[in-house]
């Protein structure tokens, strides 16, 4: 009896181990067809910390910024497969606003061809082509942007980034206000695009929605590759630092190319909580 | 599509799953037979080993945080009787960062496990071990307390004694055992939880996992040393998630005090766990590999056929999930009845 049990036991244990190699068998060539959704989740930060409106952070220019507003426009989203195939999201629907104060963090994309995407590209702001289509062509988005403090007048156009708050520096221990309003103007086109690699594949399927978790580091706007010292940009009265034009916008446009990184991709479905 | 690089065996998946269930049932039956026959070691030639061999197999941690932790490196130990049935309570304290930023809040995670366990001899050299865990885990985050309760993954293992002392009168005695086992996905795996920073906040891995284990015990008079190592091969679950394979190792020094009727065995040792990266749809999930190294102390007391064990583990070094998860400590209490 004992021998029999022992043999059954040993045989069953070992056979269990032997067949284990077949576990990945279901990765047969899956037919990828149909359309699905995808989300870009923008998690706003300040140099590694979470961005908290009203919270303070000292940058490498030795200025302490208390951010009260961070809104920006994300546009012209393109999803790219490993072989380089690009899916360009329909341009008319490809303008979005991310707003910390409005708790708007998500770009929701629909009807994307099912596929394995390894890169994402998007623009920061509104491209000239779109702007030149005129006011009536984009009335809906213009109104939406206006409601979120992302417009000047039509003739001067959109604010691509609205970054506001107060700051202190070696020159001012009392907080002074700052406004960084990034945008294009008649002199320069400051719209820029960034292409980000995804650490793991974003799987778009009929019933699977990837969530691409992007960290947006607001600190890079004035403290990136180019250093923009707010206290050197005060108005003549010395009460306010307002950056809304000129050379600084070109420098900021360059900085924002390093503003975004993908932290992780969450495949499967459901909403993203963190 | 990327080319698939998996090895393919001839068996297709449905048969394969059935095969697992079949094997698992056989193993469970085998244990029942073991119990019902009340096979005791007929001659019991090496009482010292039988009584004081500290079992430190840590079969169960499905991952760094022990979603199906039936013990982690806490070991599988009984001093009064190597063959026993019993109950064990384990508590593991972790904290994980709720967010991706340096100043994201830390969330306390509490993993509680109540486990029925047993180790039953079938023959002179063959034993079967089973672990049936029930988990009640919780964590506090910004939105409130999240609880998951339920049956965990059941493990069944068989051990074979390769080497044992020829005579119990030898001053130095050596024993070597090897084992293989299966862990069944009886614990619920919820892919939604994987959106969180700690992917291990689960009741089970959702997968059939396999273990190979080895143990060496040397004992001289009252002093003994146990060295063990095991490797857990994890497979992909039906949500296409695969927890990383795991290597556990440990060494424990123990000393037996007391008389025939009342025994006290203090013990101290070191234990480690190494984790390979988790995989999602065959791709490595960043920041899921890791390692942890523990110091541990414990004591076991035995009266007649009952034994009570207490032990604690404190991490010495750790690097779990890119620093986003930290283990605080583990404690275990067990009450066994010797067979």
From TrEMBL, chain A:
Residues 1-24 form the signal peptide. Residues 38-233 form the Copper-binding protein MbnP-like domain. The keyword Signal applies. InterPro entries: MbnP-like_dom (IPR046863). Keywords: Signal. Pfam families: MbnP (PF20243). This is Copper-binding protein MbnP-like domain-containing protein. It comes from Aequorivita echinoideorum.
